[in-house]
Amino acid sequence: MSSLALEVSNLESWYGESHILHGVNFSVKDGEVVTLLGRNGAGRSTILKTILGLTSKRAGTVQIYGQETISMPTYKIARLGVGFCPEERGIFASLSTEENLLLLPEVAPGGMGLEEIYEMFPNLYERRNSPGTRLSGGEQQMLAMARILRTGAKLLLLDEITEGLAPVIVQKLGEVVTRLRNRGFTIVLVEQNFHFAAPLADRHYVVEHGSVVEVVKQSDLAEKASLLNDYLGV
């Protein structure tokens, strides 16, 4: 198995006639956390959807654990151990919290049991019998993350998990990402909240106009702070 969990090369993507990604290149080693940073409309979320085959057309190379996936349907990509937490969360409103957790299929061995999930997300245990419509935004985000941990996925693609959430929930999600990293998960984090993302990641890929325009290592954050400010307005 490749030491690279994900390698993206010359990735192009389209929504209909709109050409969104223009030769994206980045890689993630097994067990790393990286972020895709950028302003709204830069193409960060499209990168995740393109990796999963969720755009109308794509070209280039996407290798997951050494296996080329550019021509694979989405369900086969998921079975390589990929979990996606979309920005819109996708909670089933008529189902309880626990029913939402039990719904997803196993894509790889080693998914977390309910006991582990509830230990990591105590709020979900307290709300386990509540329908999705009754959950707060923060609880819905926790549930969306918890669901993919049930599947056995080891490469997690997390799209804007902090957007619109209270600082106490954002802090909790940061603790969860750190715990997952310590357990050996590989995480690609699309974020606009740089202050949340900064301490979590090994590397930050800055995306602008559908391309990666800068790579900033954790050790270079202080040195490149003004450059990041120019790109992100942080």
Describe the structure.
32% of the residues lie in helices and 29% in strands. The chain has 234 residues and is an alpha/beta fold. The protein has one domain (4-232): 3-Layer(aba) Sandwich (Rossmann fold), CATH 3.40.50.300. It has helices at residues 44-51, 74-78, 97-103, 114-120, 122-126, 137-150, 167-182, 194-197, 225-232, and strands spanning 4-15, 18-29, 33-37, 57-64, 67-68, 82-85, 155-159, 186-191, 203-208, 211-217. The chain has 9 helices and 10 strands. The relative contact order is 0.19. The strands form 2 sheets. A 6-stranded mixed β-sheet has the order 6-7-8-3-9-10, sandwiched between helices. α3 runs parallel beside α6. It starts with a strand and ends with a helix. The chain is globular, with a radius of gyration of 17 Å.
What is the topological layout?
Layout: E1 4-15, E2 18-29, E3 33-37, H1 44-51, E4 57-64, E5 67-68, H2 74-78, E6 82-85, H3 97-103, H4 114-120, H5 122-126, H6 137-150, E7 155-159, H7 167-182, E8 186-191, H8 194-197, E9 203-208, E10 211-217, H9 225-232
Helix pairs in contact: 3-6
Task: Name a few traits of the molecule.
single chain; alpha/beta; 9 helices; Rossmann fold; globular
Lateral arrangement of strands in the main beta sheet? 6-7-8-3-9-10
CATH class: Alpha Beta
What is the CATH homologous superfamily assignment? P-loop containing nucleotide triphosphate hydrolases
Anisotropy-based shape: globular
- Summed over residues and divided by their number, the pLDDT gives a mean of 92
Global Rg:
17 Å
Reading the helices and strands in chain order gives: EEEHEEHEHHHHEHEHEEH
Distance between the termini: 38 Å
Strand content: 25-35%
Structural class, from secondary structure content?
Answer: alpha/beta
- The CATH topology annotation reads as Rossmann fold
Number of domains: 1
Poorly predicted runs are: none
